[in-house]
């Protein structure tokens, strides 16, 4: 039987198929299959050649290797972003920056290039934008250093060769989905092109000790587009989150070989580019009006405590199935909390449309937000306000019990700093008379939603 000369590969998960289909049966993505030519390779001959061509590795004693921590780190100009990256961008490292279209990836990278170009030689390679477009952005952001250079290319071979010249200390590649390796016939953005282009650039960066940042696209669900192997190849994966039309933008590392993945940097955009938010809590609460359904949550972004307003709205449903809508919080978690409220507190929500919003475009992933969301919903349904000078945090279990939260002392300290007079928190939180300890959701609603 004749072997097929081509195969179809899913750009989202990397699964292969012998024929084209509208939907990938492995990951469920639509229109993600692209055709790739299969190169005929004799497995026995290839193995025989590989055995002969191999050579003994050069090895050294582990104590003679210079520690990567001793290498110079390139400062980005943003102190919080340096913390996210583990102290700055390490020489010889390859970082992958992802985010929604229009979120500000190119703006952030141009500002980083401008800062590093004050002392080092920098190259910005774009496969998406023309020289004129990049020049306009650079002028707007004040990136006019003589050390900042630009190249327009979609050839991974050329970019890797340029990095191998060791002429530049820092290189930005925007973006990996536009690159192609000349020896591979598939289209740019396909699994084989992204994988091999990434490999070429990484090898060149490691060989010349050049710091490289690669921009990656994301799917409509927000995950990194392309093969998962790309995330394994690079040293750091940084995700740029937030609302591209306004609000705060959060940069957090989801993989970091040189530092923690619990840190986060918070930015806001203006006409001069991105700038760090020094006191996000005060900014988020500046326009707050104390109404029913409004609760202040003491949460954490990385290790930084932040106070954010949780708003809930309840209205009588006109349909048989009530609507549940949420912004900035997990919808499945909201449904779970509503079920706990109905079962453990006897609150009837079956005929209520419930809407929950996290103010400021923030996305809350903290489990300690459970209690604040529950109190906001109960307040909205009852039409009663909570004390305006009280903050709330705590995880809610399926039995209606209030469980402990991570780093309660930092949350309480942030609340005190901004002038709040009390906190509703689990018994594990220490704070003297400032903290009202709660253990059960039903008793908490009876006592504080008045």
List keywords for this structure.
single chain, 450 residues, alpha/beta, Rossmann fold, Ribosomal Protein S5, domain 2, 3 domains, nine-stranded mixed beta sheet, seven-stranded mixed beta sheet, 12 helices
How would you sum up this structure, described in words?
This protein is an alpha/beta fold and 450 residues long. The protein folds into 3 domains: 6-52, no CATH class; 71-278, Rossmann fold (3-Layer(aba) Sandwich), CATH 3.40.50.300; 282-448, Ribosomal Protein S5, domain 2. The protein is 27% helix and 26% strand. The protein is built from 12 helices and 23 strands. The protein has helices at residues 43-53, 79-84, 105-116, 131-141, 156-164, 191-208, 229-233, 280-285, 331-344, 370-382, 408-417, 441-448; strands spanning 6-10, 16-17, 33-37, 73-74, 89-90, 94-99, 122-126, 148-152, 170-174, 211-216, 236-242, 249-256, 264-270, 273-276, 294-301, 304-316, 324-327, 352-358, 390-392, 395-396, 402-403, 422-425, 435-437. The strands form 5 sheets. Strands 8-7-9-10-6-11-12-13-14 form a 9-stranded mixed beta sheet. A 7-stranded mixed beta sheet has the order 17-18-16-15-19-22-23. Strands 2-1-3 form a 3-stranded antiparallel beta sheet, with no helix packed on it. Helix 9 links the parallel strand 17 and strand 18 (352-358). Helix 5 runs parallel beside helix 6 (191-208). It is globular. The mean pLDDT is 89.
The total of beta strands comes to 23
Number of domains: 3
What is the terminal separation in angstroms? 78 Å
Summarize the biggest pleated sheet.
Answer: 9 strands, mixed
CATH secondary-structure class of the largest domain: Alpha Beta
Could you list the spans in which at least 5 consecutive residues all have pLDDT below 50? none
Average pLDDT, all residues: 89
